[in-house]
Write a structure and sequence with these properties.
This protein is of the alpha/beta class and 423 residues long. The protein has 2 domains: 1-13 and 201-423, Alpha-Beta Complex (Adenylosuccinate Synthetase, Chain A, domain 3); 104-197, Orthogonal Bundle (Adenylosuccinate Synthetase, subunit A, domain 2), CATH 1.10.300.10. The protein has 13 helices and 19 strands. The chain has a 9-stranded mixed β-sheet, sandwiched between helices. Strands 13, 15, 16 and 17 form a 4-stranded mixed β-sheet that branches. Strands 3-4 form a two-stranded antiparallel sheet. The longest helix is centred in the middle third of the chain and has 21 residues, at 154-174. The relative contact order is 0.15. The structure holds inosinic acid (IMP).
Length: 423
């Protein structure tokens, strides 16, 4: 399939990196098209250990060119350190990494404002990653953003920054923060600019040509559908469109050109940060999943909240995202459980309701309806053939397919590259 997109189907951290790693082997282009360094996963391979937040993780595939397109917000310090780590490991990124000058920049005041907003919100805070994502996207859509385009023109950058600091320093002071110095930011950004200059070029013509030539393009979605600004659990969401449609705006790919939408789904559910989570487990079982699954954030190290598989959520994600197939990850984490529950639907006051019937408060009021299945109590880690899975594990997967109505094509059975079943 020439144009494939990998979408997280829960609240992020579904194990997209592993699926991307697998699919990128045949990719000509790997593309990050939204979000920023709030996303992240650690790639471990023969070259070393790399925490990847901005550079598409498909960069490790030998022939793939990596694109960071217009929809991404860039923290240049993080980007430069990723580039340097890759170069140190022997990767020559010249002619392999292309960054759109349309990308908006995360400036120091975005990161400070992110933290100050959270402080002011107190108990009602979102639990952001603190990377300045919300404030940077807010500036983008309120015409206050500064793009790489501006940084390319020294005077333009200086003028735009001066204007923004006029506004931002007032807000910072009002919220108890310290005003920022234009000189210091300018100096820092001019050093960073020098380092990324060789990679800045609009990737749009490359993508258009690749589509025409039927080359393989792999779009790397970040986060998960329920963090989508419009369709997620607002206000406990992130600031970008996570649905596949976001690739039209973020990368300039016409919507009808996306042939394959792979929804990545963890075999249970996790969430970091605040917000409703209908199937959350507060007991020992939640703790068991957290430990077995190593559920601590890659970006912030925070322990993740854990719960049962929620078919109501995934059904919605699959429908609105147009999933053509599912990649089920971390099946092996369930190996020790005697019983496994699947939430099949929601009720409110005894009546069946759907995810989209209400907002975040509604989701704290609904009751999940569970179906209990037997666990397999056997090791599935490292299994690479569907036939070799225990019958109860197959029943679990087939129940998921029945609930969602989409084929589970990939099953990840461990952290290693080769621990994967392709059906
Ligand atoms: P922000 O994206 O840093 O503004 O954070 C907003 C919400 O999205 C918080 O609940 C974060 O924990 C969550 N979030 C953002 N990106 C990711 C991700 O890649 N994985 C999991 N949660 C994320």
């Amino acid at each position: 399939m020439p144009v494939s997109i990998v979408i997280g189907s829960q609240w992020g951290d579904e194990g997209k990196g592993k699926i991307i790693d697998y699919l990128s082997k045949s990719a000509d282009f790997v593309v990050r098209y939204h979000g920023g360094n709030n996303a992240g996963h650690t790639v471990i391979n023969e070259y070393g250990k790399f925490p990847m937040h901005l550079v598409p993780s498909g960069i490790f595939a030998k022939k793939a060119k990596a694109l960071i397109t217009a929809g991404v917000v860039l923290d240049l310090e993080v980007l430069v350190s990723e580039i340097e780590a890759l170069e140190k490991a022997g990767f020559n990124l010249k002619n392999r990494l292309f960054i759109s000058p349309r990308c908006h920049l995360i400036l120091p005041y975005h990161k400070i404002l992110d933290k100050l907003y959270e402080e002011v919100k107190g108990k009602a805070k979102t639990g952001t990653t603190g990377r300045g994502i919300g404030p940077a996207y807010a500036d983008k859509v309120s015409y206050n953003g500064i793009r790489l385009h501006d940084l390319l023109e020294r005077k333009q950058f200086s003028d735009r920054l001066a204007l923004q600091l006029k506004i931002k320093n007032k807000i910072l002071k009002a919220l108890g923060g310290r005003p920022l110095s234009q000189k210091q930011i300018e100096e820092e950004f001019l050093i960073l600019r020098k380092k990324i200059l060789p990679y800045i070029t609009e990737p749009y013509p490359k993508l258009t040509k690749a589509i025409k030539d039927k080359q393989n393009i792999l779009l790397e979605g970040a986060h998960g559908v329920f963090l989508d600004t419009d369709w997620g659990t607002y206000p406990f969401v992130t600031a970008s469109t996570i649905l596949p449609g976001g690739a039209n705006a973020g990368a300039g790919i016409p919507p009808q050109k996306i042939n394959q939408v792979i929804g990545v789904v963890k075999a249970y559910t996790t969430r970091v940060g605040a917000g409703p989570f209908p199937t959350e487990l507060f007991d020992k079982q939640g703790e068991t999943l957290r430990k077995a699954g190593g559920e601590f954030g890659t970006t912030t190290g925070r322990p993740r909240r854990c719960g049962w598989f929620d078919a109501e959520l995934i059904r919605f994600a699959a429908a609105i995202g147009g999933f053509t197939e599912i990649a089920l990850t971390k099946l092996d984490v369930l190996d020790e459980l005697k019983e496994i529950k699947i939430c099949t639907s929601y009720t409110l006051n005894g009546k069946k309701v759907s995810y989209f019937d209400g907002g975040s408060v509604f989701l704290t009021e609904i009751k999940p309806v569970y179906k209990t299945l037997n666990g397999w109590h056997e090791k599935t880690r490292g299994i690479t053939k569907y036939e070799d899975l225990p019958i109860t594990a197959k029943r679990y997967i087939e129940e998921i397919e029945k609930q969602i109505g989409v084929t589970v094509r990939y099953i990840s059975t461990g952290p290693d590259r080769k621990d994967i079943i392709v059906r």
